[in-house]
Amino acid sequence: MSLNVCEIYKSIQGESSFAGLPCTLVRLADCNLRCRYCDTRYAMEPGREMSIEDVVTEVSRLGPNLVEITGGEPLVQEDTPKLAEALLEKGYQVLVETNGSLDISVLPDGAIRIMDIKCPSSGESHRMMWENIWKLTRRDEVKFVVADRHDYEWARGIIRERLGISKTKVLFSTVFGELPPRRLVEWILEDGLQVRFQLQLHKVIWPHDRRGV
Questions:
Q1: Average of pLDDT values for 171-181?
Q2: Is 81 part of any domain?
Q3: Which pick of 73, 83, 93, 165 has the fewest CB atoms within 10 Å?
Q4: What is the spatial distance between Cα 189 and Cα 129, in angstroms, rounded to a whole number?
Q5: Is residue 119 one of the residues assigned to a domain?
Q6: Which of 131-139's residues contact partners 24+ apart within 8 Å by CB, and which partners?
Q7: pLDDT at 165
Q8: What pLDDT sits at residue 209?
Q9: Are 112 and 168 in contact (CB under 8 A)?
Q10: Domain CATH number, residue 138
Q11: Is 68 inside any structural domain?
Q12: What does DSSP assign to residue 15?
C-alpha cells in the first residue's frame, strides 16, 4: 500500500473550526478537478511514492496530534482511507479535506471530513456528488469558497435547500484576492446565516504563495 505524496509539513491549521491549532499536513498529489482559483496547482504534479508506514513515521517525527490529509484531492488515491485509519489507530485526530466530488463514505468513521461544495466561480460546481450531503455527520464540516455575490447567493440557496436539516458545521471563506472578506461578512450578517466565517490564516501569517506553511 503506497501513496503519491506531494509534501508533509508542520504548521498551524489554517482553516476550519480547528484553525490556529498546531497541525501536520499530509498533502497528496493529483486532483480530479481543475478549479479556476486553485492555490495548490503544484499538487497536480507527480509526488514521491511513500508507504503508509513511512507517512505515519514522518507524521510521528513532526509531532502535532492533529493531522490533516489534503491535496490535490486525497480521495483520488484508493489507499487514502487506509492512511486515515492507520493514523487514527495511532491516536491522531484526523481531518480529511476533500472537494466533494468523490464518495466520502470510504473514509473511516473516526476521520472528520471537511468537504468543499464548489461554487459556480470555481468552474466545477457541476461535478459535486450531492449524495455526500446525506453522508455527513455532526462532526464533519462543509466549506463554501465565495468569489462574488452570485457565489454567495448560490451557496445561501444550497444551505437553505439541502443543508437546512443538517447539523453539520458550515464554513464560508473568500477566494483570496478577489472578494474583500469584510463584504462577505456583511452579507452573512445581513441574512442572519448561521455559518462560520473564516480567513486562510496561513496566508495572513506568511506570503500567500509560500509553500509548506
A1: 94
A2: yes
A3: 165
A4: 29
A5: yes
A6: 131/103, 132/100, 132/103, 132/104, 132/105, 133/162, 133/163, 133/166, 135/103, 135/104, 135/105, 136/104, 136/166, 136/168, 137/168, 138/167, 138/168, 139/112
A7: 53
A8: 67
A9: no
A10: 3.20.20.70
A11: yes
A12: S
